[in-house]
Structure formats: C-alpha cells, structure tokens
Amino acid sequence: MTQIKTPAPPTAKATGAMLFWRTMWARAYPRIVGSLVRERSWLFFETVLPLAATAGYVFVYQAVGAPEEYVGFVVLGGAMTAFWLNILWAMASQLYWDKEGGNLEIYILSPGPLMAILLGMAVGGFVMTVTRAAIILIVCSLAFSVTYTISSVPLLIAIFFLTMIALYGMGMMFAAVFLASGREAWHLANLLQEPIYLASGFYFPVRALGFWVAAASSLIPLTLGMDGMRQLLFAGDATLGFLSVEVEAIILLILSVFFLAAARFMLTKLEEIGRREGRLIERRR
Amino acid sequence: MSSISLAVETHDVRRIYKIRGGKRKGEAKTLIALDGVSMEVPRGELFGLLGPNGAGKTTLIKILATLLLPSSGTAKVDGLDVTTQTQEVRRRISMVSGGETSGFGLLTVEENLWMFARFYGLDNKTIKSRLAEMMQMVGIYDRRSTKISDLSTGLRQKMNFIRGFISDPRVVFLDEPTLGLDVTAARDVRDFVKDWMAQNPDRTLLLTTHYMAEADELCDRLAIIDKGKTLICDSPENLKRRLQSETLFNLKIQPLRKPTSPEDVIEAVPGVRSVTIADQIDFSELRLSLEGEDALPAVLAHLSGRGSGLLSLEKREPTLEDVFTQLVGRRLDEDTSQNSTGEGR
Question: What is the pTM of this model?
C-alpha cells in the first residue's frame, strides 16, 4: 500500500432534508441501474410472463362473448400486476433480504434515515416497474386492439400517482412488518400474492364481488386505483365502477397518508425493539 | 480522565440475551454476553478488545455502534450516550466487520462506495476525490469498475474498509477485520489501519480480534475479555512484562498418554506454573510456563515417565497468548480447537 501524504480535512456532511434526499436517491440507484442497465434479462421475463397471463384472460373473455371493455379491464389489470409483484418481492421482503445480505446493519449504522432508505427502494422500484407495466399495457393494447376513451387526463394521472403513493406506502409498512417476522416473510409474500389478484379485481371489475368484499379489498390501494382508472380510461362504462372516481381519489389520499405514517411509526418501533432484543443484527434468529 | 478527552467510555455495561431452549417448551433461557464491562479509551488511541469467540467483544462493539442496547450500564462514544443520542453518535462513527457481505453485487465497487457515502450525506465532489484517493491507497483503483460480485474476499474486504473510512469517522469500530483473509490481504488491511491512525492522530479506533499477533502489532492498549468480563487492560508491552519472571518453553513431544491419576499431571511437577497441550496426529505441542529453567529437567523426566520422548524444544519470549493463558487458564483458541487443553483442569 502507498502512503497518504497529508491528513484529509474533516469532511462536511449533509443533515436534515439534504441527508434524506441523498440517502433516498442513493438507495434508489441500485434498482434503477440494476433493472435498466445491468440486468436487462429481468425485463424480458417479468414482462413476458404477465403478458401471457393477461392474454389468457383476454381469450377467455372473448370466448364467452364478454363486453369488449372487459378486454381493456384485463389489460390494465395485467399491467398493474407488475406493481403488486414489486411491492411484495422487492419492497415488503427487501429489508429482510437486506438483513440476510448484511446491508441492513449498514443502513442502521449510517445517519441516513431508514425512512429515506425505504423511500429510495420505493422510488427505484417504481422506476423499475413502470417500464414493465408500460410494456405490458402497450403490447396488449396493440395486440388486442383495446380502445381507450379517456374522460379526464388530469384525474387519471392523479389517481395513478395516488395509487402508487398509497401502494408503495403500504409496501414500506409491510417491509417493517416482514422484517419483524423473520423467515416467515417469504411465506407472507407468497400468501398475499395470488389472493389479491382475486380480491382486488385485477382481471374483472371489483364491483362484481359485492359491496362489502369490495370495500374490504379497498384497503389494498390497487383495488380502488384500478377501479378509478378503468372508469376514466373507458368513459362509457362508469357504471361498472365500485365508487365514484372522486370518492376513490379521496380514499386513496387517506390511505397514502395512513400507510406512510404507519411505515414511519413501525420502523421506529422495529428499530427500538431490534436494538433491545438484538433482532436487527442477528441473522436467522 | 475527563469525559471530553475520551472517545469511548463504558460503565458497568451488561447485556443479557434471551434465547430459546429453556427447560419447558417456549421458555426462554438467558445468556449473559457482557457482565459489567467498564473501560475508557482516550481519543487518538488504537484500542483492542482481545478474547476468544463468544467472549462478548462483538456484543460490546455493537452496543457502542448503536446496533444493540445495553441491558444496564452506560456507554458513551465521543461523549455521547449511545442509548439516547443515537443519531448524533451515528454521524461520528463507522464500523467494518470481517467477512462482511454488504453492497449490491450488480453494482461496481465505485457505485457501491458512492451509495454508502451518500448515506452519510457526503456530496459528490467530496466522494469522488476521497474515493480515488482511498482506492489507490488500498490498491483497488484498477478494479473500481468491477462488479462486487466478481471480487475476491480480500478485495471485497478492502472495499469494505473504504466504506468504513470514507465518511471520515471520528471513531471506527473494526470487528475481526482480517477474518478469513489471506496473509497478504490481512497485512494490507493492517497497514491501512496503521497509516490511517498515523495520519489522523485525533481519531480513535477500536478493534476486536482473536489474533494475538494482530493485537500486538496494532494496538496502543488492549483489554482482554472473557465470558463477558474485562480481565485486564494495558499496553501489549506492559501485559507481556507481567510474565518476565516466568520462563517459557514450547515443546514438541511424542503423543502424550493420559495421566493415570489426578496427581500425575504436568502441572503437579515442581516449578511448573501453567501448561497448555495441543494434541496433533503424530505429536503433542506443549506451551510451558516455568518458575525457572531449572524446572525443565523434572518436566522432561515426567514426560519420559509417561512414554513421551522429546522431539524439539524452544525457549521463547512471552506473548499475549501467554498473558491470556495465565489470566484465563486456557488458550485463546480453545473454543475452536477441541484438542487443546491444560491437564490439570
């Protein structure tokens, strides 16, 4: 090793909002670079498989002579599965994997807030997933000649982003819960994957489940998000919606605030419990 | 010593783990990892915690690094309480562990280090200049664009070292930093530590290790810790000086038969202060501590009486290993070496 010639001066370090910002983008970076530059093969597999599932439902609807709009419903649902999978496997389970891989200890040791780490994972995950969702949406729309009649672009954008905020907020909360549950995280993610396709109406209007089931399913932000977007994308079929788009937007806003606050609270609690019981640093306890 | 000049201080720190495996189903057992550890480390010191596996070294370092709470007692780093002033402590410290696997395999060395540096709030300009300097210093500059999944263990640990030091910490915790490294990589890591301390004389480094030579080479002072208690704390030289009155021999002998009675042990030979025996396949190794050289013939006669001929004999200077053996009554590596033990215990 060569010698350093002069001692380095003390390094200036950001605090507060700037530290939060830098931490968030630093954690988002591996996901963005990983999915868009380094591991492009993931894009292929994670796009082709949902495409196949979506096509399957489309053919069923066409075979039974369902209204044409249903094809559009399925295509949107198929695109949104990418977000749900991302929440389960790359958000909720991620802190657990990070603990197993040795990164969690570094996150906790550093002054960067854990909330910024989780938000970075969410932002990176969103960028990664939006590409996949867009490909599914475009390919399926072209393949099955889906016609969109958008009634309000601003409202559509608002519903989409509210859904994403609430959904990733829920993912952040799950991350804390899953971390506390240790190895059970894997089973929890598996448990939540398929039933939500049914409960949230990924491939059919959620209204078909009846009011109370649909209301309970609305705790998953994708339920109302997809319902609202379907109403706005296929303007002629607002009658198939569960609630009015405005009400759904308000509920999504409330869910966003709730999930983000819950994630923050649970992270703080989890860190406290982890430090007390040693669970944050011990692997496979 | 005043609190202001201390980088690390602990008072009666205890840490008790609840673990599964009580007598009844679902009942928790308790494990005392630290049992009232008190110590003071002044700023600018390279302080070592030396002890066998399970002695409590890592638990102590993790309490100081805010990853664990003490069950009782107080611990301060840079004058700040690790229990209540957690965030302030974290801004001042860093930690590198042996065998660390942090980072993302699909990112390059440079990208991973940039990411970790940003967690400490460093700006891009500072990161760029410090990264280039430090990567050259540890000899991985030419591997900066390699994905870390393609790095060897030694190179990865060098990267971990940069991660630990890039944030310019005031107190650095190194937990078994050369664990699993080959001789060259371990030497590079130790050289890095010495250079950094020489050029940052106001910074403090706390090192845990169970490698005696490493502790001897690096540490200004060290504490020997066993079963959660600090047994002694002094400079390596002073610790070894404690054994100047003893005469130390390493003997290689033909395999030693088990003693026929409790009295038929080497420790019973007049003039023997302590002995540790490591049985190998074809021979046994004895580390003898005698009151004087004149006790040696009696020991050789004892061995001969038990059917063991002498293969080689070496007189040597005291080492930290001897200090540890004298204090604890067994060798440091006894936990991992099942066939290493004294006879009289």
Answer: 0.81
pLDDT digits (tens, 9 = 90+) for B9-21: 999 999 998 877 6
User: What is the ipTM metric for this complex?
Assistant: 0.82
Is A60 a member of any domain?
yes
> Distance between CA A263 and CA A178 in Å, rounded?
12
Least confident of A204-213, B62-71, B333-342: B333-342
- Measured in angstroms, the CA of B208 and the nearest CA of chain A are apart by 17
User: Is a pLDDT exceeding 80 seen at residue A119?
Assistant: yes
> Residue A188: pLDDT band by 50, 70, 90 thresholds?
confident
Determine the structural domain holding residue A253 and report its residue range: 40-277
- Give me the number of domains chain A comprises: 1
Question: Per the domain annotation, does A35 fall within a domain?
Answer: no
What string of DSSP letters covers A185-235? HHHHHHHHHHHHHHHTTSSS-GGGG-HHHHHHHTTSHHHHHHHHHHHHHBG
Q: Quick: pLDDT tens for B308-341.
A: 889 999 888 888 888 888 787 776 666 533 344 4
Asked if B95's CB is within 8 angstroms of A111's CB, the reply is no
Q: Residues of B numbered 270-329 whose beta carbons fall under 8 angstroms of chain A's beta carbons: which are they?
A: none
Do A35 and B123 meet the contact criterion of CB atoms below 8 Å apart?
Answer: no
Residue B49: exposure state from Cβ atoms within 10 A (0-12, 13-18, ≥19): buried
Chain A: residues touching B (Cβ < 8 Å): 1-4, 6-8, 10-15, 18-19, 22-23, 25-27, 29-30, 33-34, 38-39, 101-103, 105-112, 117, 275-278, 280-281
| Residue A4 is assigned to a structural domain of this protein | no
- Domains of chain B and any CATH numbers: 3-107+151-239 (3.40.50.300), 242-341 (3.30.70.1340)
